[in-house]
């Protein structure tokens, strides 16, 4: 069953997996992005490769699908613009004739809705304009402006807005897009990327003087690698590198980025971006080697395709250079490695899921239902379908179903709404019962406790029980009167098993918070939690605190003994014990609107514990207040040092282990 | 303690010693009886230890032919064919006396005039072989250089006897030599490279040999195509223009060598591995079909378009003798390239069968291949006619996952639920069903060395017995699916060092913690499992990996080749058929077809190659009527309608992969590919499709005699009795026209 297991591997990490047998499958895998887990998971194909019997190109570097679904390709190697039919047959070839229409290494093109073809004629350093019939109309040379004297006018990509203003990307220019109006006048730069601010740069600015700074390499904004225009007039820029930050920017006429420099998943190696008529975005990414689909807000949805330099298959790209989407949502990609144009078409499932998403994102939940139902019939593992149907049910006031679906989708916002409705419903139905129950509990607490006390008075517990009970009861006292409490504790010797008991209780509460916290406050798949890791993250800092605190304070003339430090640090956990349980119960009862209650409870708890630790250090070691703060700072530093040391030891011993492992391998398998 | 021993009497000491010895012996005996040794298992299953028999070289006087005016001399002749050889260049030509057509091993002089290639490539064009060699001394031992028959330092010796013609080449300078034997058969020609004939006496060793690389090479002006074994069959037409083909079609039969990590660097490439070692070519009204009859598992099938190595279309085999691999000195250091030291010592043989007239197309080639399979006993009896088409119902019991920090079995369908699903479908009209049950092992496939008892959460052995008995009563065969090949070394006690196959660097091959069991160990595990399953009433096994994955085992004691692996796997399949009643495999590589009753996931789609222009049902034509096969499961298709129609067109039987619970239960398990498998969701679709498939029940046991493309979206398949099935992908419909013989 190894084959099946391999399916779990995420697409992006499959570069080094053993070749395996496959069945009736496409040459690539399709995945969907699960934003809750921040992971790509497998799904059936959304797009399938279509074999286009198109002409061969020499070096196609830019591609655009026109309003009439004709595909325009800039072939840099052949110095031509090719116009293809929606089926991929060559209709027209532009730019090969001698004369002023002759193109030289064109790297970009743009087709207006009217059919005018603007070509970034890079070799001739101009913009050439052709009519829909391929006749040369005019050209634009470098605009005359004092700002541009130093610039080389080598246009590589461009878009043209409704008013005929050109936004031109110049060869590796960091200044953004050059704006030129229909008369060929320079109108300034537009939409430059932000310069990278690094800590190192900040330090340099702080330390170096002006002359030294001038010698440093300037940190320039990353150049825009591609531009596209959507039907609403927004300009999309694609910028590679930077781990996807600002990989796609959606600029309005004022140059403001609607995506706010958002970090795009699978955007580090972005080549080009295109948008379809519903506003979904498509990108080709060299880094992940995939074609990615995003929603209108640039949230990743699906990834398909594959990039392989030695490709011999449709659907596997060699060196993608540009992407375009036609009106039937066919995705066209030019590939300069194989000199071909790849086309991908939506599968039946792909159409359903994209249609459902379109309606869902537009808020048309009711209309999206039939599509979601069809998607659900074909896949009940895809989270999107649970989110979609969950919202539909929420809209239909089917709260029970919505609750279950939205929980499966880990959609806390929707879940919270459904939960609010259900809770309200419950409260309305059982108001009297609930009030009675609460009253009963209160009475029970009041008289029950009294009764128990009375009982104990009448029949006191054996003498040997008194001391431990007092020690445990002391937790409460220490929490409320830390100075007094710790002072008393310093003198008392709490037995080891009481300490162990308290610690066990704390661990139990911790386990409880991991598994029993309400879904809204802990939206994770409980079965996938690494309990030892979580407990480790809880226990290890506490242990290192004890060690570091003892070491530091004994050097700094603290009075505390090791046992006292352990004892004090254990009692300092008291707020955790007392606050966590109500927080746990409340987390199961409140919605996101009221989450402030639980959050503030937690905040108070942690602050209180911090105070307890400070007081503990002060009292046990008999420091004054300032001394305490200083020593705590040193303790924290020591903790860091201990961890660094542990990390180094681990790293080095791994090398040593590897050495012996290799030796063992040599001896056993070669010797 | 010491005091105590000192104080006890001698008698007690003796008795204690004897008792201890007895205890040790019983423990050893117990452990041994529990553990079946691979050698013993092979013996019990009646599988012979694989041993290759190599063909001998011809002995005798050198033959000095007297060429005719065209330079060729007749060497061999039978009723239908005559073989000519050009003694100087050792080019050959075969004349098909039935049609008078002459097939040449190399393009004629006139054709060469139009060639633009020069140097070595031109010399290769004139040679009946191209030998690639590497150095065994010096700095870089991975540089490949080529030799051909045009080499000035080559000595050729011809020997002719009643069997055939032998041409031996000796490159005196390089001290390399090899031999080609040609034999005529009633259907055509056999060409062989005997392992015995390869001489490596100097500092050079053979890397690969292209055998008859330009046999029948055609120009773009001709009408015809090359047939390559891509998916169910692929055609490369001479007249089509295609995207940037930089490598041509060159792929190893049954896929690349798995243990060679050098093969992984481009594993983004997902393709249909070659399942049957066949290629062919059609030129006008003449065609040939070639089968790799020996050593095919270590060969590439290569088809080249014009513009890569010459101006011609050609198809041939590239015989692999050594592989380049990455040698890893340490886990942290970058790996080095190296070439395998030991040569693969297997004979290589290709049989060409020549077709003309009506038969000269892919249907004729497939028929010729079927004839080859039946003549050599690789395909045995025909299927028995059925009243209703069988439907293969795969049921996923469940799978394991790591949950709450331990291993948890996620139950998807218990035995009782499985019975309910089968009964439900029977009542609704599915008249013939076979069940394949998955994930029945203890904790699913968690530890495939230790698979018993049957998973308790499915109902355990008792429920399994009840289920099987009920199914037997209703005449429904139940197969259990199992994998005896991959073992997870982290979960299993089986030692990878003694039981795992070795890679070229002779270390155990481990991929993400999994190793591949040696074929004999596979037999041992399967033997013991089948013993137990037989007792509870299982009527067959679906074996994972046997039908789709073969490998060399580079054991330090000597290479066990793919051929040896195949021999053991075939023995195991035959044993399973004999013991349980039926055996099934995935994908159905050609070596399994004689020993298997059911092939799941037979190749049905192309690999989307630039090179391949059309996909045709070559393999289905060869198999239909002899073995039953299904394509992708009905509920897991990418395109529901198109793949359904393809199954109808290619004569497949239906299969569905179901669970009782929501598939979501299996999300975090290895069965996460079951996107939608809930029985309730699929019932109506199954019933609809079953009715459609059932209309083809009469042709279940018949062979396909013709297949044609009527238009872009309409295809017709014709069966023995004349029944014609026309599938229309445009309207998503199909029609069955009853044949006269029905």
UniProtKB/TrEMBL annotation, chain A:
Chief subcellular location: membrane
Domain (Yip1) ranges: 478-646
Record's subcellular location: Membrane
UniProt KW Transmembrane keyword: yes
NHL repeat positions: 103-133
GO molecular function terms attached to this record: lyase activity; zinc ion binding
Name of the featured protein: Streptogramin lyase
Automatic annotation (TrEMBL), chain B:
Transmembrane segment boundaries: 12-31
The keyword Membrane appears for this protein: yes
InterPro entries: DUF5696
Name this polypeptide is given: Uncharacterized protein
Keywords: Membrane, Transmembrane, Transmembrane helix
């Amino acid at each position: 069953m190894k084959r099946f297991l391999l399916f779990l591997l995420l697409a992006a990490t499959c570069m080094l997996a053993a070749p395996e047998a496959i069945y009736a499958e496409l040459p690539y895998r399709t995945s969907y992005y699960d934003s809750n887990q921040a992971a790509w998971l497998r799904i059936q194909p959304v797009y399938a490769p279509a074999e286009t019997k198109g002409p061969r190109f020499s070096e196609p570097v830019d591609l655009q699908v026109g309003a009439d679904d004709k595909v325009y390709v800039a072939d840099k190697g052949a110095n031509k613009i090719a116009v293809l039919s929606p089926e991929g047959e060559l209709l027209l070839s532009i730019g090969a004739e001698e004369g002023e229409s002759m193109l030289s290494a064109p790297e970009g093109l743009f087709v207006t809705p009217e059919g005018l073809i603007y070509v970034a004629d890079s070799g001739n350093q101009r913009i050439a304009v052709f009519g829909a019939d391929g006749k040369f109309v005019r050209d634009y040379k470098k605009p005359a402006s004092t700002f541009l004297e130093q610039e080389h006018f080598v246009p590589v990509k461009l878009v043209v807005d409704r008013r005929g203003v050109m936004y031109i990307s110049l060869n590796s220019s960091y200044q953004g897009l050059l704006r030129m109006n229909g008369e060929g006048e320079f109108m300034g730069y537009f939409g430059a990327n932000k310069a990278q601010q690094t800590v190192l740069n900040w330090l340099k600015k702080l330390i170096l003087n002006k002359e030294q700074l001038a010698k440093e390499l300037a940190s320039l904004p990353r150049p825009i690698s591609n531009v596209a225009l959507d039907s609403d007039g927004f300009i999309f820029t694609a910028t590679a590198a930077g781990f996807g930050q600002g990989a796609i920017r959606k600029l309005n006429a004022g140059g403001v980025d609607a995506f706010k420099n958002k970090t795009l998943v699978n955007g580090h190696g972005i080549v080009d971006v295109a948008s379809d008529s519903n506003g979904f975005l498509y990108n080709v990414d060299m880094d992940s080697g995939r074609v990615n689909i995003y929603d209108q807000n640039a949230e990743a949805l699906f990834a398909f395709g594959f990039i392989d330099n030695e490709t011999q298959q449709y659907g596997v790209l060699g060196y993608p250079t540009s992407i375009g989407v036609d009106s039937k949502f066919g995705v066209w990609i030019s590939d300069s490695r194989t000199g071909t144009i790849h086309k991908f078409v939506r599968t039946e499932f792909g159409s359903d899921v994209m249609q459902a998403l379109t309606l869902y994102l537009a808020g048309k939940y009711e209309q999206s239902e039939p599509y979601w139902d069809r998607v659900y019939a074909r896949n009940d593992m895809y989270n999107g379908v649970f989110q979609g149907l969950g919202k539909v049910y929420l809209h239909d006031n089917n709260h029970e179903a919505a609750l279950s679906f939205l929980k499966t989708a880990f959609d806390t916002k929707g879940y919270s709404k459904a939960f609010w409705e259900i809770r309200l419903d419950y409260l309305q139905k059982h108001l009297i019962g609930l009030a009675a129950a609460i009253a009963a509990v209160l009475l029970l607490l009041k008289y029950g406790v009294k009764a128990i006390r009375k009982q104990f008075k009448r029949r006191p517990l054996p003498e040997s029980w008194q001391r431990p009970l007092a020690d445990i009861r002391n937790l409460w006292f220490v929490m409320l009167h830390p100075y007094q409490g710790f002072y008393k504790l310093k003198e008392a010797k709490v037995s080891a098993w009481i300490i162990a008991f308290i610690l066990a209780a704390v661990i139990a509460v911790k386990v409880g918070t991991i598994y029993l916290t309400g879904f809204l406050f802990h939206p994770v798949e409980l079965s996938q939690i690494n309990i030892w890791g979580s407990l480790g993250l809880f226990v290890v800092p506490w242990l290192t605190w004890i060690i570091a605190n003892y070491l530091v304070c004994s050097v700094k003339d603290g009075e505390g003994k090791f046992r006292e430090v352990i004892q004090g640090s254990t009692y300092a956990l008291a707020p955790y014990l007392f606050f966590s349980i109500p927080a746990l119960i409340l987390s199961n009862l409140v919605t996101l609107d009221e989450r402030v209650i639980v959050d503030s409870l937690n905040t108070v708890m942690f602050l209180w514990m911090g105070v307890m630790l400070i007081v503990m250090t002060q009292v046990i070691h008999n420091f004054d207040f300032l001394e305490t703060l200083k020593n705590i700072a040193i303790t924290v530093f020591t903790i860091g040092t201990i961890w660094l040391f542990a990390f180094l030891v681990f790293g080095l011993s791994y090398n040593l282990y590897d050495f012996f492992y290799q030796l063992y391998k040599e001896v056993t398998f070669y010797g | 303690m010491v005091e105590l021993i000192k104080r006890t009497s001698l008698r007690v000491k003796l008795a204690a010693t004897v008792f201890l010895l007895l205890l040790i012996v019983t423990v050893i005996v117990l452990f041994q009886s529990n553990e079946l040794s691979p050698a013993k298992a092979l013996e019990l299953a009646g599988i012979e230890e694989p041993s290759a028999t190599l063909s001998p070289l011809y002995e005798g006087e050198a033959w000095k032919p007297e060429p005719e005016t065209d330079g060729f001399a007749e060497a061999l002749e039978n009723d239908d064919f005559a073989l000519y050889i050009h003694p100087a260049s050792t080019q050959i030509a075969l004349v098909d006396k039935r049609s008078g057509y002459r097939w040449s091993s190399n393009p004629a002089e006139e054709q060469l005039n139009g060639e633009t290639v020069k140097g070595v490539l031109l010399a290769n064009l004139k040679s009946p072989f191209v030998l690639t060699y590497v150095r065994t001394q010096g700095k870089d031992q991975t540089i490949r250089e080529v030799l051909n028959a045009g080499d000035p330092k080559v000595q050729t010796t011809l020997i002719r006897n009643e069997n055939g013609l032998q041409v031996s080449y000796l490159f005196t300078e390089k001290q390399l030599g090899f031999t080609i034997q040609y034999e005529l058969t009633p259907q055509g020609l056999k060409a062989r490279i005997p392992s015995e004939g390869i001489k490596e006496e100097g500092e050079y060793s053979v890397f690969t040999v292209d055998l008859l690389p330009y046999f029948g090479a055609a120009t773009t002006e001709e009408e015809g195509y090359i047939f390559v074994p891509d998916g169910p069959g692929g055609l490369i037409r001479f007249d089509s223009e295609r995207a940037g083909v930089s490598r041509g079609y060159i792929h190893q039969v049954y896929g690349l060598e798995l243990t060679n990590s050098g093969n992984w660097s481009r594993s983004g490439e997902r393709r249909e591995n070659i399942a049957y070692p066949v290629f062919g070519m059609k030129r006008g009204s003449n065609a040939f079909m070639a089968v790799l009859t020996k050593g095919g598992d270590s060969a590439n099938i290569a088809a080249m378009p014009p513009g890569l190595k010459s101006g011609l279309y050609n198809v041939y085999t590239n015989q692999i003798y050594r592989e380049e691999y990455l040698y890893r000195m340490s886990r942290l250091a970058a790996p080095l390239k190296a070439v395998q030291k030991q040569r693969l010592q297997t004979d290589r043989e290709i049989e060409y069968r020549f077709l003309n007239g009506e038969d000269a197309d892919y249907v004729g080639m497939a028929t010729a291949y079927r004839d080859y399979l039946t003549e050599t006993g690789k395909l045995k009896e025909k299927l028995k006619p059925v009243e209703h088409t069988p439907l293969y119902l795969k049921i996923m019991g469940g799978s394991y996952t790591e949950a709450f920090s331990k291993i948890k079995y996620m139950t998807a369908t218990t035995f009782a639920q499985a019975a309910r699903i089968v009964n439900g479908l029977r009542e609704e009209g599915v008249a013939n069903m076979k069940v394949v049950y998955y994930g029945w092992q203890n904790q699913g496939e968690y530890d495939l060395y230790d698979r018993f008892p049957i998973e308790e959460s499915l109902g355990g052995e008792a429920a399994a017995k009840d289920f099987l008995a009920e199914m037997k009563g209703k005449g429904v065969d139940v197969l259990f699916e199992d994998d005896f090949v991959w073992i997870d070394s982290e979960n299993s006690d089986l030692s990878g060092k003694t039981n795992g196959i070795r890679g070229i660097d002779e270390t155990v091959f481990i991929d993400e913690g999994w190793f591949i069991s040696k074929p004999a160990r596979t037999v041992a595990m399967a033997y013991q499992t089948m013993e137990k399953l037989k007792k509870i009433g299982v009527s067959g096994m679906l074996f994972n990996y046997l039908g789709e994955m073969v490998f060399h085992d580079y054991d330090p004691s000597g290479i066990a080749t793919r051929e040896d692996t195949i021999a053991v796997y075939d023995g195991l399949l035959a044993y399973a058929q004999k013991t349980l009643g039926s055996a099934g495999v995935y994908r159905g590589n050609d070596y399994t077809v004689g020993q298997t009753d059911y092939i799941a996931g037979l190749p049905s789609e192309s690999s989307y190659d630039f090179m391949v222009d059309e996909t045709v049902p070559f393999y289905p034509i060869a198999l239909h009527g002899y073995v039953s096969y299904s394509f992708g499961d009905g509920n897991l298709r990418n395109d529901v309608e198109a793949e359904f129609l393809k199954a109808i067109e290619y004569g497949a039987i239906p299969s569905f992969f179901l669970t009782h619970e929501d598939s979501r239960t299996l999300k975090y398990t290895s069965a996460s590919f079951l996107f939608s498998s809930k029985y309730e969701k699929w019932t109506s679709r199954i019933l609809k499709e079953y009715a459609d498939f059932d209309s083809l029940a009469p042709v279940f046991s018949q062979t396909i005699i013709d297949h044609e493309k009527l238009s872009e979206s309409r295809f017709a398949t014709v069966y023995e009795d004349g029944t014609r099935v026309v599938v229309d992908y445009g309207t998503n419909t199909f029609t069955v026209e009853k044949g006269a013989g029905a």
